[in-house]
Design goal:
The protein folds into three domains: 261 residues, 7-stranded beta/alpha barrel; 68 residues; 220 residues, Beta-galactosidase, Chain A, domain 5 (Distorted Sandwich), CATH 2.70.98. 31% of the residues lie in helices and 28% in strands. It has 22 helices and 26 strands. The strands form four sheets. Strands 15, 16, 17, 18, 19, 20, 21, 22, 23, 24, 25 and 26 form a twelve-stranded antiparallel beta sheet that branches. Strands 1, 2, 3, 8 and 9 form a five-stranded parallel beta sheet that branches. The chain has a five-stranded antiparallel beta sheet with strand order 10-11-12-13-14, covered by helices on one side. Strand 23 and strand 24 form a beta hairpin.
């Protein structure tokens, strides 16, 4: 009896990706794959393309869009839907989830005349709470990894077929993707793949199930040569025809399998994603412990693998505070969009739910500032529409759900968020005129893969035609190795530092300038007086070898011009008997508009500064210029400053990336503290025009 072979392809590009990148991907992967399918009409498959990528093809690459339509009309492709903007469905509000799916379904029906019944789960993130919503929206099946079943106690040999699951009396089919096929296609030679399909058919498999990323066919490192130039894909497709003619396999779409092949039974799946994703969701040190455990279990790793799991996807919000803040602000704007009906705002809000910049794994994701920027632009565009003509307001709310309240300023022109529990820092300053968050800066953190950079080993030769992306290694440069330094506080603004006068620029860059104060990221008390916020902390200085020297710091912030101007005044009351000489700095971390657009720069007084390397100098005024808007910092007098581009080391498809995440600027003053004396200084921050 012929083995039904279900072949699925998932194509997606994140919101904010560059047009030239998507063009390259289209020409190197998406288009040649579909052209190969057109030349082989016996090849039928299920295809998910995110709404973002479909719309891009429609607007920028009609040749491919038309070919896709022809393949659907010819019956070769079963369209599969998802959330239109490719969100992780379980982490967005329920009403938004429904709208995302309906938008994708409606688009596919309108453009191609087909109503999809299958759904691709973004990053295969599954929670049982999805079942009722999906069934009510006309979804009959989803695909997940076989690992979702294995961690529930199923045997591997029981997973060559599909199951039903249920919730609230609603029934949904679930297809487990065969991990072996996921790693084999297109990396194994066709002959080895044929032997595997023969083996599972001999063992009684009812279905061979494959569904994975389309980028593997041409843009993963080494695959264009392997798949197209050396002919792997053509050989595979011709072999499929031969195997089908010989009665060894039968090519079916997932929808057809649902109609023709009986389910294997009932299954209840735990909250899960694929194994690598669960690993990446862990804290970095725990990832290393997990890898150590897996190494210790060899050669029994495969046997015990179902019982070895990483973290919950939502813990990316715990691991990365920047992701959490963006996500919880998305919740706020989503709620606002349901109170005030603006269709354009709803569309922007849904776009801001695109998943890629909310997490980080082997790809850039959160570490790519242009992806974070795209989400912030859409979110703030929605918020600007929803807050149009509203009066300035100051409120208190636990925005990030950490149990500590933030101060939340809103107007039709700006949004500001201050965190009293964390140094009274400014954690968001968003312009609703430019739709830009100046605090969109990523903290430099230790990542588990940094260990392999520090202790690099050459990879062994692959026995297959090409390495899978999960096993690629590239020798790090000296620049990469030097950039491996980590921050002990999060990179926001209005961070107060008291530090050793002998420390210099390089110490600041490496975040190793011997903090003497206990103010930078510690709790402040606060109260409000009209449009002024007063933060104060009864802290201390700790010069090396001495006891605590009490110091009361008051930070007053007057918010003007509907949140586009901040008057800052600092007062210091020194309460120790011993004199203390130190430097006091106010650190700002900004993601300026010119980093997002590539137009503009940073001026200290009237001189543009190079941002290629750290800079030390003196200035009274700093201007972050761009054609759309500029941010000014004005001091009372000319003072010394440190400045450097905040750069992170992250993984990418081809190796390691050194990425500028923002600009760290710290003007600083020499202070000679003596008993009973008070000191003060003032400065102004302003967005113009």
């Amino acid at each position: 009896m012929a083995l039904p072979f279900l072949f699925g392809v998932h194509n997606h590009q994140p919101l904010g990706n560059f047009d030239h990148v998507i063009t390259r991907l289209t020409e190197k992967s998406y288009l040649p794959f579909l052209e190969a399918a057109w030349r082989n009409p016996h090849f039928r498959f299920s295809l998910h393309v995110s709404g973002i990528l479909l719309k891009w093809w429609e607007d920028h690459y009609p040749k491919l869009f038309e070919l896709l339509g022809k393949l659907i009309d010819r019956g070769q492709i079963e369209p599969v839907c998802g959330g239109f903007f490719e969100p992780i469905l379980v982490i967005i509000p329920r009403e938004d989830r429904k709208e995302q799916i309906l938008r994708h379904k409606d688009y596919l029906k309108r453009q191609f005349g087909k109503v999809p019944v299958g759904l691709w789960l973004t990053e295969r993130v599954w929670e049982q709470s999805l079942v009722e919503d999906l069934v009510n929206l006309g979804i009959r099946y989803v695909v997940v990894d076989d690992r979702h079943f294995l961690v529930s106690g199923f045997e591997k040999d029981d997973l060559y077929g599909y199951y039903y699951t249920e919730a609230e009396g609603k029934k949904l089919a679930v297809f487990p993707i065969d991990e072996t096929l996921r790693y084999a296609i297109p990396f194994w030679p066709v002959e080895r793949l044929a032997q595997y399909l023969y083996d599972i058919a001999f063992r009684g498999a009812e279905l061979a199930i494959y569904f994975d990323d389309g980028e593997k066919f041409g843009v993963w490192p080494g695959t264009y040569k392997w798949v197209y130039e050396e002919g792997w894909l053509e050989k595979f497709l011709k072999s499929l025809r031969t195997w089908q003619e010989e009665g060894r396999i039968e090519i079916l779409t997932f929808e057809e399998a649902l109609e023709r092949v009986p389910a294997k039974g009932l299954a209840y799946l735990p909250t899960a994603s694929y194994a690598e994703m669960e690993e990446w969701a862990l804290p970095a040190k725990k990832i290393l412990e997990l890898l150590e455990l897996e190494e210790r279990l060899k050669p029994e790793k495969t046997r015990f693998a179902p019982f070895i799991r990483g973290g919950h996807w939502r813990n990316f919000f715990v691991k990365y505070s920047e992701s959490n803040h963006l996500h919880k602000r998305m919740y706020q704007v989503s709620a606002l969009s349901r109170e005030r009906f603006f269709p354009e705002a709803r569309l922007d809000l849904l776009a801001a739910q695109c998943n890629d910049a909310y997490w980080h794994g082997i790809f850039g994701g959160l570490y790519l500032p242009h992806l974070r920027q795209a989400l912030w632009e859409k979110l703030l565009s929605a918020e600007a529409k929803l807050r149009s003509a509203t009066k300035p307001e100051i409120g208190v709310q636990d925005i990030d759900f950490d149990g500590k309240e933030e101060i939340f300023f809103t107007s039709e022109k700006a949004v500001l968020v201050f965190k009293p529990s964390y140094g009274g820092q400014l954690v968001e300053w968003s312009s609703l005129l430019a739709c830009h968050n100046y605090q969109n800066v990523l903290t430099r953190r230790f990542e588990a893969y940094h260990e392999s950079i520090k202790h690099f080993e050459e990879p062994s030769e692959s026995e297959e035609g090409v390495f899978s992306i999960h096993h690629l290694k590239k020798r790090p440069s000296e620049e990469i190795l030097k950039a491996l330094c980590y921050d002990w506080y999060e990179r926001h603004s209005l961070i107060e530092h008291f530090f050793d006068p002998t420390k210099g620029l390089e110490d600041f860059v490496r975040c190793d300038f011997e903090e003497w104060g206990d103010f930078a990221n510690q709790p402040y008390l606060w109260h409000r007086m009209g449009n002024e916020l007063l933060f104060f902390r009864d802290g201390g200085l700790y010069p090396p070898g001495s006891q605590r020297r009490p110091l009361l710091l008051r930070k007053k912030i007057k918010i003007g011009r509907a949140g586009r101007q901040l008057f800052l005044s600092y007062e210091f009351e020194y309460r120790a008997q011993e004199d203390t000489k130190c430097l006091f700095g106010i650190e700002f971390n900004f993601y300026p508009l010119f980093l997002a657009s590539g137009e503009g720069g940073l001026k200290a007084d009237r001189e543009f500064l190079s941002l290629d390397k750290p800079v030390e100098g003196q200035a009274q005024k700093f201007v972050l210029e761009s054609p759309r808007e500029q941010l000014e910092i004005r001091l009372q007098e000319k003072v010394r400053f440190f400045l450097f581009p905040v750069k992170t080391v992250s993984q990418s498809e081809a190796g390691y990336d050194l990425t500028t995440q923002g600009i760290a600027l710290m003007p600083f003053w020499p202070f000679d503290f003596s008993a009973g004396k008070r000191y003060q200084l003032e400065l102004v921050l302003e967005l113009k025009p």
